[in-house]
Automatic annotation (TrEMBL):
InterPro entries: AAA+_ATPase, ABC_SmlMolc_Importer, ABC_transporter-like_ATP-bd, ABC_transporter-like_CS, Mo/tungstate-bd_C_term_dom, P-loop_NTPase
Gene Ontology terms, MF aspect: ATP binding; ATP hydrolysis activity
Source organism: Leifsonia shinshuensis
Domain ABC transporter, first and last residues per copy: 1-231
Full protein name: Molybdate transport system ATP-binding protein
KW DNA repair (keyword) present: no
Keyword tRNA processing annotated: no
Keywords per UniProt: ATP-binding, Nucleotide-binding, Transport
Pfam families attached to this UniProt entry: ABC_tran
The organism's place on the tree of life at top rank: Bacteria
């Protein structure tokens, strides 16, 4: 389902144009107040623009002032930051709700609900009520409910924002699986989400699209300062090994693949700087650390971005002061294998 949107919401100073191909996922990035939620609201039919037009495949969602499809007739599912499950219904009934509303029989709706609960990893929780679920489990159920409606377009508003890091990491993997091949728009503040979930990235600033393109290009060669700030991700390229990857110049790093990848295949490791720790000196014999040389120190509030010829680390300023690292210093970097995401190159 290809999507084309052009909309102006004058009161919020938002004026955007976006396009998305069939089966593609678009990540919408941008600082607070940039207009991301407004764009989702316009697509979902919850915010009426002053002017504009949107089409989803050959369906016109709106063409103002003449036409405006109400939310329930758009074939669009919106997944909010909080799961917003019906509290009085079991998990299974929550998920059955969408196919039932679309006219499916009870048996069909149940089969569909069970299938989606399995795919999102919460099949065993079908008979529980929402208040018996953790935040991550509830969000999985919400994803199952959104997808059981078989939407032509799925909108996700910071789906991982309210979860703690380890739960968010697991759910990110599930989302990557279920969004593959689906037309989706994901609002996120997190470059890693954009990198792992999206085919394309649009960066919003002040209600306008300031940068747009294939995710890899936008994230690795950012042109707008906000994108650069946001995407301080470190990337290493190399070949898949049994436990991680090895770079062309022989650095071996353990990591976690985002999908099964055969050994020897060209891969990229994506590392978030906040997960990298730094110590002065070269690795000790048998130590799994990475030998690196500091190339720059960039203070940011009470943190310092320690750039090296290998990975970038984001560490508290007090730690840098204690380590007394300076450009040219030889350091050892360590990063937990779970934080080294290995993706196809
Ligand atoms: N209900 C509303 N009525 C009027 N103005 C609004 C409303 N909601 C948001 N705005 C304004 O519209 C602009 C865009 O806000 P929006 O919520 O779309 O940004 P966002 O990028 O989603 O931000 P955040 O990351 O903080 O959620 C902001 O100037 C905001 O103050």
């Amino acid at each position: 389902m290809s999507l084309a949107l052009s909309a102006t919401v004058a009161e919020r100073d938002v004026a955007v144009e976006l396009r998305l191909g069939t089966g593609e996922t678009l990540a919408l990035l941008g600082p607070n107040g940039a207009g991301k939620s407004t764009v989702l609201g316009v697509l979902a039919g919850l915010v009426r623009p002053d002017a504009g037009r949107a089409t989803l495949s050959d369906e016109t969602l709106f063409d103002l002032p003449a036409s405006w499809l109400p939310p329930h007739r758009r074939g669009i599912a919106l997944l909010a930051q909080d799961a917003l499950l019906f509290p009085h219904l079991t998990v299974r009934r929550n998920v059955e709700f969408a196919p039932r509303s679309a006219g499916a029989s009870r048996a069909e709706a149940r089969a569909k609900a069970d299938e989606w609960l399995e795919r999102t990893g919460v099949g065993a929780l079908a008979d529980r009520r929402p208040d018996e679920l953790s935040g991550g489990q509830a969000q999985r159920v919400a994803i199952a409910r959104a997808l059981a409606a078989e939407p032509e377009l799925i909108l996700l508003d910071e789906p991982l924002a309210s979860l703690d890091v380890s739960v968010a990491g697991e759910l990110r993997g599930t989302l990557a699986e279920v969004l593959a091949g689906r037309t989706a728009v994901v609002v996120t503040h997190d470059a890693l989400d954009a990198y792992l979930l999206a085919d394309r990235v649009a960066v919003l600033g002040g209600g306008r699209v300031v940068e747009e393109g294939p995710a890899r290009d936008v994230l690795t060669q950012p042109r707008h300062p906000f994108t650069a700030e946001l995407t301080g991700l470190s990337l290493l390229t190399g070949r898949r090994t049994a436990t991680g990857l090895v770079t062309d110049d022989g650095l071996a790093l353990d990591g976690t693949p985002t999908a099964p990848l055969v050994e020897g295949r060209p891969v990229t490791a994506v590392v978030r700087p906040s997960t990298v720790s730094v110590r002065v000196g070269v690795p000790l014999p048998g130590e799994a650390g990475i030998a690196a040389t500091v190339t720059a120190l960039e203070p940011r509030d009470d943190l310092v971005r320690v750039r090296t010829d290998r990975l970038t680390a984001l560490v508290p300023a007090a730690v840098v002061a204690e380590l007394r690292v300076a450009p040219g210093a030889r350091v050892t970097l360590t990063v937990p294998p779970a934080e080294v995401r290995i993706t196809p190159a």
